[in-house]
């Protein structure tokens, strides 16, 4: 652990610092959906239209629950910048920073998305989009009759003792020990710590610590979170004929909640990264431990970046991953 918790005080990062985990949230969401599948309350092959009638336009092709989880649904992204001035959206940051305390409901997000036509026939391509997990969160609420946040809390956080992990919804503050997040724009460093993330909801609203995420990752890989038959779906990517949307040369590499990464030496790493402005997070591990009864080899990292949503951060993250598993 290195660095400081904030640029003002210069104090070191607390060992139990909380941070925004971004799309690592999707692993928790997928786990809850797969638990419901194991309980017979959801069917991966049943359609969204069946469970949530009227949510999607009548001219949309049937989308299954499984296609939501592995990003092969064909649903279009929710463009929250529609109608905004071009100069406000040009840098990708200004518009969202101005609206960082705005409340977004999942219904509003879906309504924005479905103004556009489907991107592709469901099941024929893969496009990683938050909209899939927004709908997955809505499914959880419809089937259980309670909030998405409560289901994650009761099914995962409490049983595993993840006391420093939460889904704050509209609460913009990081409570307790935490690291501040910053974004650089036009040479200015902006503190982005206080920020409401209802826009990301079931796709990216998690707050956690490295210790909690390590406990979760080990438990997930051991089979202590999702029953074995459904856990297999988290380690299964679509067939090779399914390619990434817009890049026919790239095979699909997202499973239901995780990402497959083929590394040198035949090593296959499974995990998930997450990025919110000011914060980069990653969890991952090798599926099969070295021997029976052993915990899986895992990695959890949290990195405060002033360009967290930029492509330039990928080499830095790859260096961390390669060092841990090569």
UniProtKB/TrEMBL annotation:
<protein>
    <recommendedName>
        <fullName>Beta-lactamase-related domain-containing protein</fullName>
    </recommendedName>
</protein>
<dbReference type="InterPro" id="IPR050491">
    <property type="entry name" value="AmpC-like"/>
</dbReference>
<dbReference type="Pfam" id="PF00144">
    <property type="entry name" value="Beta-lactamase"/>
</dbReference>
<feature type="domain" description="Beta-lactamase-related">
    <location>
        <begin position="3"/>
        <end position="279"/>
    </location>
</feature>
<dbReference type="InterPro" id="IPR012338">
    <property type="entry name" value="Beta-lactam/transpept-like"/>
</dbReference>
<dbReference type="InterPro" id="IPR001466">
    <property type="entry name" value="Beta-lactam-related"/>
</dbReference>
């Amino acid at each position: 652990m290195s660095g400081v918790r904030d640029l003002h005080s210069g104090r070191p990062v607390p060992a139990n610092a909380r941070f925004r985990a971004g799309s690592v949230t999707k692993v928790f969401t997928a786990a809850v959906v797969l638990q419901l599948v194991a309980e017979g309350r959801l069917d991966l092959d049943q359609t969204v239209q069946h469970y949530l009638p009227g949510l999607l336009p009548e001219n949309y092709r049937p989308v299954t629950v499984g296609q939501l989880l592995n990003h092969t649904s064909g649903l279009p992204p929710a463009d929250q910048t529609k109608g905004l001035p071009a100069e406000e959206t040009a840098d990708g940051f200004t518009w969202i920073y101005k609206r960082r305390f705005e409340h977004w409901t999942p219904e509003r997000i879906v309504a924005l998305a479905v103004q556009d036509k489907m991107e592709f026939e469901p099941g024929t391509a893969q496009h990683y989009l938050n909209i899939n997990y927004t709908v997955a969160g809505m499914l959880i609420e419809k089937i259980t009759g309670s909030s998405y946040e409560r289901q994650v809390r009761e099914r995962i956080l409490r049983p595993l003792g993840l006391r420093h992990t939460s889904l704050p919804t509209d609460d913009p503050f990081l409570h307790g020990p935490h690291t501040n997040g910053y974004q650089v724009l036009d040479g200015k460093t902006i503190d982005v710590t206080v920020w409401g993330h209802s826009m990301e909801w079931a796709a990216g609203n998690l707050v956690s610590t490295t210790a909690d995420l390590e406990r979760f990752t080990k438990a997930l890989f051991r089979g202590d979170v999702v029953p074995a038959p459904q856990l297999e779906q988290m380690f299964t990517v679509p067939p090779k004929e399914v390619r990434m949307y817009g890049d026919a040369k790239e095979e699909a590499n997202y499973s239901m909640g995780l990402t497959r990464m083929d590394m040198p030496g035949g090593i296959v790493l499974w995990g998930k990264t997450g990025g919110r402005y000011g914060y980069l997070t990653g969890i991952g591990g090798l599926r099969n431990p070295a021997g029976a009864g052993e915990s899986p080899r895992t990695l959890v990292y949290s990195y405060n970046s002033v360009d967290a949503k930029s492509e330039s951060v990928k080499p830095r993250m790859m260096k961390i991953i390669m060092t841990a598993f090569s």
